[in-house]
Specification:
Blueprint lengths: L1 E7 L3 H6 L2 H5 L6 E5 L19 E5 L9 E5 L5 E4 L4 H5 L3 E5 L4 E6 L7 H23 L4 E6 L23 H13 L3 E2 H5 L8 E2 L12 E2 L2 E5 L7 E6 L11 E5 L2
Parallel strand pairs: 1-2, 7-8
Antiparallel strand pairs: 1-14, 2-4, 3-4, 5-6, 6-7, 8-12, 9-12, 10-11, 13-14
Length: about 260
């Protein structure tokens, strides 16, 4: 069994202060994917950011204190790929992929369009570019687990207040249609939804609304999405909410790999 955890840490140093690494040490995860790290590896001098027993990789954005992804693995990767080969998206530290003998895992942080029309256009450009990447991935016949903050709530069940959010970034018809294409047209599997087709659980709660967490007014925008060949390899999928390390919650999936 392989356990994979993904979490948007909303600042890795902040998550560490909130007990994330103490929790992580108890999980016996094989791969850990982090997003919105907001730090360069050279700034992370404390040993807590380099957990014992793991091979740790960081890919920071060029802009200080912004975006960035990380990935820890027990196994030494055969290959580590920083970025997607796109100048803008790589400058923003959006993707880090590692390859093992029988599968690969990516830590992904999709752009958000909530700060304005310009950023929404960047998000659409990213979706177009990444869709082509997904098609190439399928043609390569490589098993892949794509983890991270996709910044899209797919269906009504994936956010509490879906009616009032239909014109907001993260739940726009075009974004949702894109994710539907990824799943229905390309055949990728949303691991959590595959095992819990009717469960209303979320992975992100707004910090602006102080009662969002307490009242569970959230969005499910963090995923582990896998290539079709891994559909029957998904054993368990859960969202951890007993403790809070970030405005997102860890998504934990066990695989028969």
């Amino acid at each position: 069994m392989k356990r994979i955890i993904t979490l948007n840490v909303n600042g890795i140093r902040s998550a560490a202060k909130k007990g994330f690494y103490a929790w992580l040490a108890k999980q016996d995860a094989d791969v850990i994917c982090l997003q919105e790290v907001r730090a360069e590896a050279t700034q992370l001098t404390d040993s807590v950011f380099w957990p014992e027993g793991y091979h740790c990789h960081y890919f920071a954005a060029q802009k200080k204190g912004y975006s960035g992804v990380a990935l820890y693995s027990k196994e030494i990767p055969l290959k580590v790929e920083l970025g997607l080969g796109h100048e803008l998206f790589d400058a923003e530290g959006r993707s880090l992929c590692v390859e093992f003998n029988h599968f690969q895992v990516a830590s992904l942080y999709f752009p958000s369009g909530t700060s304005g029309e310009g950023r929404q256009d960047v998000k659409y450009a990213f979706l177009d570019y990444y869709f082509e990447h997904l098609k190439k991935l399928l043609s390569s016949k490589k098993s892949a687990i794509l983890c991270g903050d996709w910044n899209i709530a797919h269906q009504n069940i994936d956010l509490r207040n879906w009616r009032s959010n239909q014109k907001n970034s993260g739940f726009l018809p075009e974004e949702r249609a894109w994710l539907t294409q990824v799943i229905d047209q390309l055949g990728f599997i949303d691991t959590f939804r595959k095992l819990h087709p009717q469960t209303e659980e979320y992975t992100w709660w707004s910090m602006r609304n102080r009662s969002a967490w307490e009242k569970n007014i959230g969005w499910r925008i963090d995923y582990q999405i896998v290539t079709p060949d891994l559909e029957k390899k998904i054993l368990h999928a859960s969202i951890y909410k007993a403790e809070r390390f970030s405005d997102h919650a860890p998504v934990v999936v066990d695989y028969d790999l």
